[in-house]
Amino acid sequence: MIPLCRSSDMEGSNEDTEEDKRVWCRRMKPAMWYLMMLIVGFFYVYLTAIQYIRGQQALQDPPSTYLKQYDPQYFDESLISPANALTFEYHNYTTMTDFLRAMSATYPNLTALYSIGKSVQGRDLWVMVVSSSPYQHIIGQPNVKYVANMHGNEAVGREMLLHLIEYLAKNYQTDDYVHWLLDNTRIHIMPSMNPDGFEVAREGTCQGGQGRYNARGFDLNRNFPDYFKQNNKKSQPEAEAVKQWISKIQFVLSANLHGGALVASYPFDNSPNTIFQQFTSTPSLTPDEDAFKHLASIYSFNHGTMHLGLPCKPGAPAFTNGTTNGAAWYPLTGGMQDYNYVWHGCMDTTIEMSCCKYPMAKQLPKFWQDNQEALVRYMGEVHRGVRGFVVDTEMRPVEGASIKVKSRDVGFQTTKYGEYWRILLPGHYSLEVYANGYDPAVEDFLVVDTNPTLLNITLYRASPEPDALPSGPNNHHTPPHSPPPSAAVPTSNPNASAIAITLFFTLTVHLVKFYRLFKYFSDRVSHHRRPVFIGGPAQSQGRPVPVHRPEFRAFSPPSRTKSPAFLIFSAEFSIASCPSIPEP
After folding, report:
1. What is the CATH number of domain 385-475?
2. Model pTM?
3. Better-scored residue on pLDDT, 539 or 411
4. Closest CA to 398 of 412, 420, 414, 422
């Protein structure tokens, strides 16, 4: 505590009383004391605001409901053995869970394990984040996901993703491409979307349906809303968990790993004429056909044999370059890849990894050899195309702005921080941006092959009549049933920006407001060795005010100086205690 100086000091006494000798007084000009107090508070809030704007505060991404496994009461990491080298064998739910927990404990700076929900029988739907910042969403960094074992008896993808997790974590320090990928991407890996089905499937079964469905007998890849046809199938817990997951995290690129063929399939899986489509091989093309075909080719040509397009058996279809449009192969309603694309703007493909759905474990090393490079290179494609931020004229992010590339009617939206990404091939494009309360914006840009194009968009406020603005690109191609929710990245404190910005500007105003007070004190305060803060201007030729006038004494109890809010309160109180200050 800074003790108060006695008002008798102002009377010019040069002799100290006994009481005076026991008092320590701050030898500091009042203006300097206030300046120090305000500068500390100003920079505290300034840094907080900058931290917020740059997105360096920890976002709970995935949302806090997914983070219960980080609670020591949920599982004791001290009891988990370090991860051993993963063997080429099939892992049931228990051994898979043990492996994921061991990897999370062994590589805490690169991995984070969370569950997005439960299966019908109560098994966790595990997801492993692999990134150099696994617990934080870094602003501007795209999210990618892999999902496998959606059909419980298609088991190769499940094991490939477990090996991918191990490969990425172990090679971060030694492989330049893996290092770059993890430094610039957040990778979410779900080894099994249907753990209940896997438990009843049988190794060595190449065809048949045992284990394909969830515990209630539903095909999870027919359980999502569909653009072309209303899907009346009852939504299952596994599909609901995935829908909630991808509505909370804005994924840019995804792949869904299956078995039973050797091909990379891309949207659309369904078509307007489903009845006739099943008798033809007519593709159902998306507005992003070129980008989807490229993504499928990236996987196929980095795979050991997929690009050859060989049929799995006599009479089975052969696929040119190992790729196909989904509906051209066979149409289906309620597929996950179409849902990802239309509802959330995520570029999703389906990778059929093996001719046999559940081959013998001895074949797993060959499958890993064929798929390792393809799995890694496919994720890198998220850094192709255009990316940037949508902000207003005050540099504040515009959340939920609807964006589309001109002539491509399936759109996407900005995140809470105004971020957006779109995978595009080299060429000239125009980006159209719409947001409620703003004038539409159109920007031309060029995409090159070597690096993504950074394009930031500034929106200007408008006061249009109701329904005057376009409703946005998502509604240009909106499914007639179950319209898509807005995409947003969750944050643990949605009011953080308002608090930081309010304090920031309040302190700025006060700093200007107190300038004259500082100048006045600096010019007129007594230079006595124990200066006193005075409550008003001296009216007697610059001499200190008489002792009966109000005194403004500086003190700062440590127990009260805990936040910029206290500094603001103190400054407001100080101004209220002083008479009006004349112009200098």
Report:
1. 2.60.40.1120
2. 0.70
3. 411
4. 414
